[in-house]
Amino acid sequence: MTATARRHLRAWLLEGITEQSARHQGPHSTPPAEHQGHRWWRVMCLTGVDYFSTLGYQPGIAALAAGLLSPLATLVLIALTLLGALPVYRRVAKESPHGEGSIHMLERLLPWWSGKIFVLVLLGFAATDFIITITLSAADASAHVVENPFAPHWLDGENVLITLVLIAALGAVFLKGFREAIGVAVALVGVFLTLNLVVLATSVWLVLSEPVRVGDWWSAMTAEHSSPFVMVGVALLVFPKLALGMSGFETGVAVMPQVRGDDTDTYEKPAGRIRDTRKLLTTAALLMSCFLLLSSLATTILIPQGDFEKGGPANGRALAYLAHEHLGEVFGTLYDVSTIAILWFAGASALAGLLNIVPRYLPRYGMAPEWTRAVRPLVLVFMAIAVAITLWFNADVDAQSGAYATGVLVLMLSAAFASTVAVRHRGHRAATLGFGLITAVFAYTLVTNVVERPDGIKIAALFILGIVLTSFASRVHRAFELRSTGVVFDETAARLIDEVAASGPVRIIANEPQEHSTAEYRAKEYSQREQTHIPDGKPVLFLEVLVRNSSDFTTSLTVCGDEKHHSRRLRVAGPGVPNTIAAVLIEIRDRTGQVPHAYFNWTEGNPISHLLRFLVFGDGEVAPVTREVLRRAEPDPERRPRVHVG
User: Fold this and answer.
1) In 10 A of CB 356, how many CB atoms?
2) At what angle do helices 318-365 and 181-209 cross, to 10 degrees?
3) What SS3 state is found at 556?
4) Residue 33 covered by a domain
5) Based on the domain organization, do 497 and 454 belong to the same domain?
6) Each residue of 318-327: pLDDT tens digit?
7) In this predicted model, what pLDDT tens digit does every residue of 545-561 receive, in sequence order?
């Protein structure tokens, strides 16, 4: 490849990489202020391609998990959805109205590195949720392709190939650009729900026409389970396996910036957006609850239990089975096409969620390269992971459901816990007890799911391990960057710099930020003049850096000046001492037009331990690290600020 071709490829891949990328919603980018967004019901369709598409496979998974008790287990799931997940995410919409979701709520609770590491773990579970959504949905779409009677015979058994083609097509769409997501989502959701309504209405008519079917189901269920208490107990035990029927809530709050809200909304108080997002969440939950209950009853009563097993005609496609069986092959094929389309687009919704979350956190932590702020490189990374997951699970829907449910439940548990803490801080005792109970139920559901299907937590652990290792490797690699988004001098600092610059290059003595006496400042200046040969009579400035949170990677620097203890001082807070000093030196150079000189003392001790202190605490051996940061930031030695060590 020629150098020109490489430049064009790089420019295409990194198109749109800006600081704003850290706040975008992936391809569903936040509209500029002059744009009004979309009505809440249209945005509901965007999140609904993930949520509603689970009807394609949820009834079959429920039948496999609960057998004849599937409707009862689904009732438990609906109760948890309406009385647990819905109140939690209505609270998340209020507490985090700009698309950050529950992860941002929890990030604010934990300080320093503990908060960063906790967020990385949650990102691992979020990646599990969204990536498995892509692969599971594509795998189920391939099952609908293969089982369709009009599909070519050469597609028989080619589920993996079809799934990979669908994933590649999804990636190609995002690489080209994904601008009309909501319009497409509205059409797909409208058609899909209408066809499901026809299938379920037909099923209800069949059941009412032949009430003996209900009697047969009830007799078989009561023969299998001796008492109603046993039935309820079994349903409570197996319903965690149905947890993927609650997916979509996290996506619902992630797309909040797309909701129009009121004309009077402000960034600080988007009351209309919060109200309409709550409408979105409530409407979606009620619709899905009705469809889940009806589909569970219809498939359990009308489909023989053996047909749900792996390799059976209803495995992963129970409603499609009913469509073909009772409405004919033409309607069944139309249903298949609609299901394939919405399942494929559910992957698009999940990928959009990933492209929203990753640029928000990892680059800001310094735990990802700057190219992760761009959409296209991330799309290639996520598509490669999706291909690997598909090959690992052999495009098996049932095998992936455990990992999917694990990711969904962890995010819901984190949202419930964050909501509990939020209402507790506001002194709402009753709400605290309610959200605390919901948190306990989600914790039970998660633990049960992990015990029953440990493969889910294993997959999540791999995602977490990958994210943590690559994140910290990136942090170490980027530790020697300037790490400042801007340097501002207050009025006094600017005056002091200009006064010193009038006598030649600005000379800076790096000093500890603790309070000092006049004698200490004089001793420090005298030793530096003697050891590093600062010219006699030339004025100096003391620069003192306070590290408030070394786990932060970038920040805006405000340099404050004062004259105390008969010394001119510049004081600034930053994430790391060497990086902050280097940024201030470069800004002084740009302000005065002269290359400044900085003077340091050597630090006693092991250089390896000092390097580790720098990486963790932001200080350590300051002089050589400052010089290295300057070397990387300014390649021209003639313009690079000078570092002197005595």
Assistant:
1) 25
2) 150
3) strand
4) no
5) no
6) 898 999 999 9
7) 998 888 888 888 999 99
